[in-house]
Amino acid sequence: MSSFEEVFGTTPDGAWRAPGRVNLIGEHTDYNDGLVLPIALPNEISVTASARDDGIVAVSSNGQQAVIEFALDSLTPGSVTDWATYPAGMAWILRESGYAIGGANLFVDSDLPTGAGLSSSAALLCATGVALLGLRGIEVDPAEVARLAQKAENQYVGAPVGLMDQMASMCCTAGHALYFDIRAMSTTQIPFDPEADGLTLLVIDVKAPHRHVDGEYAARRKSCENAAAALGVPALRSIALADLDDALSRLSDDVDRRRVRHVVTEIDRVEQAVALMHAGRLRDVGPLFTASHASLRDDFEITVPELDVAVDTALAAGALGARMTGGGFGGCIIALVETTKADETFKAIEKAFADHGFRTPTSLAATPSPGASKLS
Questions:
Q1: CA distances from residue 342 to 111, 217, 347, 369 in whole angstroms, order as listed
Q2: Whether residue 73 lies in the annotated active site
Q3: What is the pLDDT along the chain (376 residues), one digit of tens a residue?
Q4: What is the largest CA-CA distance in the chain?
Q5: Cα separation of 146 and 129, whole Å?
Q6: Is the dihedral of CA 150, 152, 155, 157 positive or negative?
């Protein structure tokens, strides 16, 4: 364990934080101009920082003494590698966008699992952004910070991610899910309090390797873009559920058809979920979770055995609904369960994983939490 003072030998000017997120429903819809419904987690990344006057940014993290340095005026995509790519990318996009940030010492700490599909990369970008801006007293709308963080990940890191993760990290509020309409760039805070209904939202990290920039995500996105072009629409959001069968009949590629079917039906599931939550019928959202998982498994083909076993086991243990969440190919599932059955549901998943020879899963508390803020 190390600290800011131990690494940099000086006193910090402040600390900032940005949370991870879990998406309730609306998977792989964000880059199709669709709808998503994430919550921010209590797990977060913090950046303790001090200003420098030499135009150098020095970054380090808890558990290591190594410091990576880069000059702001020589930042270009590819000039910084390894995990420091993310803070470097955020510094780069802020300067490219005209914000007068300066040099800084940045110390990163986290209780957010990496590789679990809980958006640790977006949290790191957002925490870095609010720290670099906060050090100079620059006020920027949270949604704009989110858009800049997405640009940094797209253009500097090289990951073709959508905007959901960054918006959740910046714009969520405690006790709510963020209903984000990407096409309209509008957000609505939807009250989300499972505890009041005697329910728990279990988040289970299945500990399968989560590979987010290995070509699979990009391939799914490209397939959606190809299908939209073939159908003559700007994005798959433009296809109404009532027109889905006609759209599918106009596509010659079976893979593209299945990708389109997932996106269009998933957007409809988000709308149904929000309507049910507004009506106080949270229990009825469970089957939508399960239908979402089946679509992600069969039509979008991004689940792995660990995710499928975890979902099937949770449902067999009495969960009201369960689904994989995040980019896929590893990561986490969520399960909506009666609070009285939460422990036995997780134990059932642990046993199933042991029986299959999988790694031991872990669980996280999924309390809807606030977006990025200053800590001190």
A1: 22, 32, 9, 20
A2: no
A3: 689 999 999 999 999 999 999 999 999 999 999 999 999 999 999 999 999 999 999 999 987 779 999 999 999 999 998 899 999 999 999 999 999 999 999 999 999 877 777 778 999 999 999 999 999 999 999 999 999 999 999 999 998 888 999 999 999 999 999 999 999 999 999 999 999 999 999 999 999 875 544 688 889 999 999 999 999 999 999 999 999 999 999 999 999 999 999 999 999 999 999 999 999 999 999 999 999 999 999 999 999 999 999 999 999 999 999 999 988 999 999 999 999 999 999 999 999 999 999 999 999 879 999 999 999 7
A4: 65
A5: 9
A6: negative
Instruction: Return phi, psi of residue 122, to 5°.
Output: -65, -40
- Asked if 227 and 260 count as a contact pair (C-beta separation under 8 A), the reply is yes
For the chain, list the domains and their CATH numbers: 4-189 (3.30.230.10), 192-365 (3.30.70.890)
**374, 15 contact by CB (below 8 A):** yes
Burial class (CB in 10 A: 0-12, 13-18, 19+), 56: middle
Residue from 250, 183, 263 nearest 223 by CA: 263
What whole-number distance in Å separates Cα of residue 337 and Cα of residue 340? Answer: 8
30, 33, 165, 299: the catalytic one is 165
Question: What is the edge-to-edge ordering of all strands in the sheet holding 35-36?
Answer: 35-36, 176-181, 186-191
Going by their DSSP bridges, the two strands 332-338 and 321-325 should be labelled as: antiparallel
The dihedrals phi and psi of 265, each to the nearest 5 degrees, come to -70, -30
Give CA–CA dist 309/305, Å, rounded: 6
